[in-house]
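Q: Mind making up any chain with structure tokens?
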Amino acid sequence: MHSNTILQQLMTLIPRHQFESAVSEYAGDRYVKTFTTWKQLTTLLYAQASGKNSLRDIQTSLETQGSKLYHLGLTTVKRSTLSDANRDRDYQIMEKLFYHLLARCQQIAPKHQFRFKNPAYAFDSSTIDLCLALFPWAKFRQTKGAIKLHCQLDLRGQIPSFATITDGKCADIRAARLFLDLIPDSIYILDRGYVDFKWFNLIDESAAFFVTRAKDAMAYQITGQQEIDLKKGLLFDRTIQLTGPLSQKKYDKPLRLVGFYDAETKNTYHFLTNNFKLAALTIAQLYKARWHVELFFKWIKQHLKIKTFLGTSKNAVMTQIWAAMSYYLLLAYIKFQTRFKQSLFLLHRLVQNTLLDRLGLVDLLHLTEKKLPMVRNMGPQLCFQF
């Protein structure tokens, strides 16, 4: 029985028809003879999965694996060819691929940890520093370049359900107001950088909910108070009305203020929300779940290539980031579909160490890193079919 390489099996998970439609929409293969957009995607996913840092690394590595490239439709990939493709082909092709993969992941993502059925999202941003001399289009400060990755993490499966990339100067709240589509009955978990009562009013009018931390200087009066269980760390559960002249004008409806003492961090938190139905402890737990979006940013910065880039143009940078995000969703899809119980990091390491090995994907998921050397030279295994 024949078994393709792990990378080839990853590529079969790409919605090829939808990808080619995006290629046609943005004329990605116009005047192209050999290095098509599909081959560019294959090369970029290979670079992300294997952790290659430069064009030279990619070219050299693929040259040494020439006998294994047949089923990928690749021959050798020249540095200049990949560089030109990243610079010239519209990055929106890779962005559309991300959202097609997202739709597949959302269909099979596990439920979030809470009992309620409302969708819950954590929204935040992370700055990616760039050298201003090499990336002059990304000017952030006088001597520093940067871009911002804004992401909405779906707590159902902990996958990014929305992402956008802006210049480093874009304020977090401005990005949220411009790009975030508000979904009725959804709960948006935000840190204090997103406190804007005019926007909160828009969330409320959209029949959605927000959970955030109240600012220390917030002016309000208490109009009601609910009973709480002091043993669970709760300090109070109040109904309040804003009294500041500007804030009251932007949001004139009742709000809920929940006080909570975290015994682990020994810190006191005040949570602000427009949701009066959920238990006070659930409000505190929801905000604590916001930490997952911080862990997501930390994960992709540590394990994917979004801090060192293969090109210096804006299009090349955006192309690489969207390819990295698509690779993340591929891993998540495999984890959801196979109910892989180990961490996403272990799955990434298993894929990374067997990327061009002829091994069935289903067999790979039952391995540990210690067992990998023993199975690499075994005969063909059962290939996992999705």
About this structure: The first strand starts at residue 120 and ends at 130. Residues 6-95+311-375 form one domain.
